[in-house]
Design a protein that fits this description.
Strand order of the largest sheet: 5-4-3-2-6-7
Radius of gyration: 19 Å
Number of domains: 2
Number of strands: 8
Largest sheet: 6 strands, antiparallel
Order of helices and strands: EHHEEEEEEHHHHHHHE
Shape: globular
Length: 271
């Protein structure tokens, strides 16, 4: 990859524009579905009105058992997209896969979460947030410190989502491409002592849809050149890992470079 360098940000491409573009690349129609938070019951909407986004673009599948607002016990497979924190609790915002509908779940009402990558059960949902999703949970909820694996997910989760979205953009998920993602994370965080098997299982569990990707890439852009520069090289490594560059991968790379130029990065040539 040849570059003139990165000047720094002048303006940030909008998440909505990223979402619409990747849908066009994949040949999908624009999703008119409202944000899941808007479709949540009024009590939850009010509770998270003054909340802050803890993490977005997660794209992890999990089976969640929880008590609904009507006091019914639900058990659903979720695609977790983001975590919201209010003064009183955390909320999981995502898609209930069995009914293909957006849902917001209050974490304190969760009785059990199953990590679908290894079938491990968590009766403490806050432990799942920290140990599997890399969310920095406050001591009042979970005094246990983060493991090195959780720190790695906390630091590179958005980048992993972006890269694993690219891995599946041609409707194939090859081991060689996933190994390129695994290598990227290891090189980004050489000081952390985690097992590659753990990270590989995490990457397998990622199921980035268009919405999750747009959230994750937007987060990467906010981090600036120290993340964006190696991420662009990782994109090239993933695209070429299996020896075949798919047309959708070429289109994705071209648009990614366009987004970076919009954000003020100078990119000369990519080879």
């Amino acid at each position: 990859m040849g570059q003139n360098g990165f000047k720094g940000m002048t303006k940030m491409v909008k998440q909505k524009d990223i979402l619409n573009t990747v849908k066009n690349i994949k040949g999908e129609t624009e999703n008119k579905e409202e944000n899941s938070l808007k479709q949540a019951p009024k009590k939850i909407q009010e509770a998270v009105k003054s909340s802050s986004e803890k993490k977005s673009g997660i794209a992890v599948k999990a089976c969640i058992s929880y008590e609904s607002m009507t006091s019914n016990v639900k058990k659903r497979d979720f695609l977790i997209r983001r975590i919201i924190q209010s003064k009183s609790d955390y909320f999981i915002d995502g898609i209930a896969l069995d009914i293909n509908a957006p849902r917001v779940v209050k974490v304190s009402q969760i009785t059990c979460i199953e990590d679908l990558s290894n079938k491990m059960l968590y009766s403490d949902p806050y432990l799942y947030l920290q140990n599997v999703l890399g969310i920095e949970v406050e001591e009042s909820y979970l005094p246990e410190p983060m493991s090195d694996f959780a720190k790695a997910i906390n630091e590179t989760g958005a980048e992993a989502t972006v890269l694993m979205y690219l891995v599946s953009i041609d409707n194939k998920r090859t081991a060689k491409e996933r190994m390129a993602v695994l290598k990227y994370i290891r090189e980004r965080l050489p000081h952390l002592d985690y097992k590659d098997e753990q990270m590989n299982d995490y990457l397998i569990s990622l199921a980035p849809d268009d919405e999750s990707f747009s959230m994750a890439f937007h987060r990467c852009l906010k981090k600036g050149k120290l993340v964006v520069e190696p991420l662009l090289q990782a994109v090239l490594n993933v695209i070429t890992a299996d020896g075949v560059v798919h047309e959708k991968e070429r289109a994705f790379l071209a648009k990614l470079i366009d987004w970076l130029k919009q954000d003020g990065y100078e990119i000369d040539t990519v080879s």
